Amino acid sequence: MRFRSCLTAAALVVTAVVAAAPAAAAAPQARYLGFATLPHKVAFQGTTVGGLSGVDRDPRTGEYVLISDDRSNINPVRTYTARLDVDATGVHDLALTGTTPLRRPDGSTYPANAVDPEDVRVDPLTGDYWWSQEGNRSATPIQPSIERSSRAGAHRSTLPLPANYAITPDAGPRGNRALEAITFDAAGLLLTSIVEGPLLEDGEESTTERGSVARITVQSRLGHVLSQHVYPLEPLFAAPEPGPWGPDTGVPAILADPQRPGHYFTLERSWVPGSDYKVRLYEIDLWGSTDVKGVRSLQGADAKPVRKKLVADLDDFPLPLIDNVEGLAWGPRLPSGERTLVLVSDDNFAAEEVTRFIALAIR
């Protein structure tokens, strides 16, 4: 009874956030601290490390939990744990400490291409791992999902998702633009997700002339959809050169602000052929934005999007390379009172890309 009362209270908070719109405050400022890099395709406990696309800090251990987006093509779908010291002088002593295969309900590991893991969060209430996988749009689609696993990798449950997250022939997420980003609120009662790019029914993807829209969904940890909101994606930062691959822009990570309900940080990552990557960090808030959970298409819809403020452009920091940054987590608080953020890049198991941990201070 107490747990359900907490869920009711959380739902009331979401309702208040959607209904009210307090005066906008200045965006937080980000200060660069440093980075650390893992060797390419390093071998660890019988696995090849790479494709690290999600990260979260485990409050029980102080270590970081990571998920590889390897679809069991190299090794079974798995998480890693890592130690990483972040302080005012930078990032130090990066070391992997463990790896765990994630298992299906029958106890077996996932076969090749059965799921596409993307993000991972440590449950604030139980310590379990919740992880998203964006599925695959194909002749026989694999539906996006959010799975819950024990810390030892055993399957616990699957979260029911909103109906418009389903891949259908003429609606739902685009291929490779589906469910990458998830986050818990501080109490662990609400889980928020964002579809990486626009649903088919919500319009075209970003171009150099105009942006596009994605959907943010706030749910209870039991799966009840409480609200859905419009996230405005930026236009492409450069014109793509001709080639076999088109540009890719969207949101690979979202992180709740534990101090302010309804506020989040998002990573917006773009890859443009001929211009490589651009990665920007934004602060967003849901206050006063329209609840669009009952709106089938956002094209022409009268919907107020979430408010969004630029916090950092990674191009402004002394990084040797702006790569495929996909993971975002809170790090430790500094003696100055600043909070830290830890970002991780997915090297796609490609020699020209890197697995890099980047630390920022937020004030």
Structural category = mainly beta
Helix content: under 10%
Give the termini distance in whole angstroms.
39 Å
Question: For the largest beta sheet, what order do the strands appear in spatially?
Answer: 1-22-21-20
Strand content: 35-45%
Question: Any overview of this molecule?
Answer:
A 4-stranded antiparallel sheet has the order 1-22-21-20, with no helix packed on it. A 4-stranded antiparallel sheet has the order 4-5-6-7, with no helix packed on it. The protein has a 4-stranded antiparallel sheet with strand order 8-9-10-11, with no helix packed on it. The termini are far apart. The protein has one helix spanning 2-19; strands at 30-38, 43-44, 47-48, 52-57, 64-68, 78-87, 90-101, 117-122, 129-133, 145-149, 155-159, 179-184, 190-195, 212-220, 225-233, 248-256, 263-272, 276-285, 307-313, 325-330, 339-345, 355-362. The chain is globular and about 50 Å long. It is built from 1 helix and 22 strands. Helix content is 5%, strand content 42%.
Overview features:
single chain, 363 residues, mainly beta, four-stranded antiparallel β-sheet, 1 helix, 22 strands, 42% strand
